[in-house]
Amino acid sequence: MNILKIYSFIIFFFALTAGSAQHNIIINANLDAKKKIITIEQKVTYTNLSKDTLTQIFFHDWANSFSDKTTPLGKRFAEDFIKRFYFAKDEERGGTIIQNISDKESRPLQWGRHDGIQDILWIKSSKPIYPGESRTFLLKYQIKIASNKFTRYGYHPNGNFSLKYWYILPAVYDTKWNIYSHKNLDDLYAPIANYQIHFTLPSTYEIVSDLEQKNSILSKDETIKTIQLEGNKRNEANLYLEKTSSFYSFPSDGVQFISNIDDNDLMPEMKSVATDRIIGFLQKKLGPYPFDKIVISENDYKSNPVYGLNQLPDILRPFPDGFQFEIKQLKAITENYLERTIIINPRYDAWIKDAIHIYLMMAYTEQYYPEMKIIGKLSKVIGIRWFHAADLDFNDQYFLAYKNMARLFLDQPLLQPQDELVKFNKNIANAYKAGVGFKYLEDYLGDDNIVDQSIKDFYTQNVLKYTNSDTYKKVLLDIAPLDVEWFFEDYVQTNEKLDFKIKSVKKGKDSIEVTIKNNGNNTMPISLYGFRKKDMVSKTWIMGITGTKKVKIANEDISKLVLDYDQNIPEVNRRNNYRNLKWIFNKPIQFRFLQDIEDPRYTQIFFIPEIEFNVYDGFTLASKFYNKSFIKRNLEYNFSPAYGFKSNRLLGSASIFYRQQLSDYGLYKMRYGINGSMFSYAPDLLFKRFSSSVSFYFRPEDLRSNKKQRLLLRNINVFRDRDKENPVTTPDYNVFNVRYKYSDFNLTNFLGYTIDYQISKNFSKLSATVNYRKLFLNNRQLNLRLFAGSFLFNDTEKDGDFFSFALDRPTDYLFDYNYLGRSEDTGLVSQQIILAEGGFKSQLEYPFANQWITTLNANTNIWKWIYVYGDAGVVKNKNISPKFVYDAGIRLSLVADYFEVFFPVVSNKGWEISQPNYEEQIRFIITLSPETLIGLFTREWY
């Protein structure tokens, strides 16, 4: 037994040290371009590089992720509200048809889908595979290529093909199988293998690949050809099949550079100079690129672009064409450089490559474009250059993107698995936080060369090897002169936020005692600067602040103290970093026209004109004063005095809200607020509304989950002008409202319900609303809404139906809804409806209920955005027997829930479509709020 163990160890040792100890993959592929099918015969020689004996091998079959709507990829699209896959035609989707799996003697092998997951295979070996041993598997299968409109890879409308994850390949085993599904994250953990590909395709196509093209054999009739491709120690074999090549190529620093990224019509010489500079920069910062070719595609770049103003159309883009081309190539080349050479599990350990990637991009910009601003040439335009955004460097965008998520309480640890990140963190914020973290380390260590050297050492020691971020940690610890454990323990492993403030200052004759408070729960360091007027006289790093910490610095006639003056530390709040020792105010007040990026050096007040409309005030012009910048703040205020041009009255609104984060999940946030407004509710009649509220927000630990809960407690006071000709009994009233709201939704399923309780002097009422939306696999959509409400007591007969439940158009006595004409009974604006309370579309004989009401609203699509709807319910008023009500018609859902038109067809009134003045019965929903509409586009990111 001991001899067997020694023998196994010797085999394992030589397997790991021998240069040939790689998996070998031989692929014979035949493309049917018309049917978009690749027929593959594949030979996989799997080498057991582990210490364990294996009896079955797992394979990734990510091409099969496109087979139907229920795959992990299909579900991911639904979670992200991406409709194009769900509504795609069957022929646009892809899949894998496995015909045979056998060993090298052609004996059939057992195989199956792991736990029923469509894109993960297991194959049982005919014999155990001991450490260092190899086993050969023969696979015959067909790949139906999916459309490129899902992930940018697949078949293109012009007949070209971009192939990624197009073949079956073994998973990586390192004490466990690293298997997971395709979720459109571009994060396959692919093993290093030697590739030999024989690809047969129509002769009209050419293949672009970073593999070496050995030869091309043309058939006798010259209609097809077979191209042989080879490459050793590769973790991917992406192919681009094009009839007319879109790629350009030139040698660059010993590497053949091939790309089809849009070049903005630059001269070839300019492209060559830019690329030489990029590859030379990376060779210097990392080390030599181990392959002869580097291929960069527009698909690669668009899957992970440089987000920001550079994505605007060319006519609006504020950056020079040369810089635009160079920064795009830099992003794509650096990513490709790292992806092909540093073999890290990208789903569970992506942060280290992200950190190196963004750090190198920042270093490149600092070296070659130190004057480039975040808004490019716009920073020099009169008017725009007065904004703080014009002062920010191009590299400041990385911190701002991370701070945006931190301020939204949506930031996640860098070690969070990629498929658990919200989309904005996956695509942008986490990579930026990682890169900015390296700049933080650089500033803390006080030597720009240490982080640089650690990256280079890590790369050169681990190129084309399986590695991880722990290896980088060891490299850095070996050369760092200071303790950097805090970086890995607090910055990387948690989402603890950095926020320090100068709490107090005591001046002595020879020293100054500064008390610094850490508003977070971490031990990360902060730098303290001392200034004499505009001259920096001291810089001190302070470690281990838990709660508060006192530090003494020399009193060199210091006039101002600043935390993190150079802004290298990714603090979420820099406004409390200043202490003026010569003046009562820490920072001057600054008024800014239009919204701007937050400038921590000033107390900023923004102002902007606003135009609104209702039929009573006409167009109202407001001058809005507020402190909300482009990134949310915990304390936000808004004062908007306004003037109504039709009513000739002074109007307006004001609000103050404060957000408090309590934890990462569960009851994670509270929001306190007071607000007031004054506008017209009828001709020449004003209402004044004052409200105070507190909201409790709940969410699950999984931030990708769309489950949300909110408990709102508010007190609303309304004061209305009295109408002499039509006086109301209760013009002024107070309502206390408790509202609980739950929602869980994605593209295919929606469930939400609201429970609402109101109590006032003259009434008390309880209601519940349940919404359910289901998108079936056949693309049929069913929407159901149930509303039930009852008065617990009601003494409002003197007020008519003002406080009653409404069947079709709520009176909105709480002034929650944005009616264009809330008191109108005739005219176009009276046809505006809000789908609340009864939710009916027809105006029936019993439009209100002063006792109880129950309604069911339903609709389903008959063609794209055309729906048929039906409503049914029972209305109960005092001293009247319950009345059954119904209506039905056609709904045009142009923008669901935001712009819709309803055409009644039949109801209690009979065949409505044939009745006089039918156009007056048509109802519509319209939402003009920009913030509400923006939510349509941001929901898949947050």
Automatic annotation (TrEMBL):
Any one Gene Ontology molecular-function term assigned to this protein's record: metallopeptidase activity
Keyword Transcription regulation: no
Record's keyword annotation contains Protease: yes
Listed InterPro entries: Peptidase_M4/M1_CTD_sf (IPR027268)
UniProt keyword list: Hydrolase, Metalloprotease, Protease, Signal
Biological process according to GO: proteolysis
Region forming the signal peptide: 1-23
This protein's name: Metalloprotease
Species for this entry: Aquimarina atlantica
Lineage: Bacteria, Pseudomonadati, Bacteroidota, Flavobacteriia, Flavobacteriales
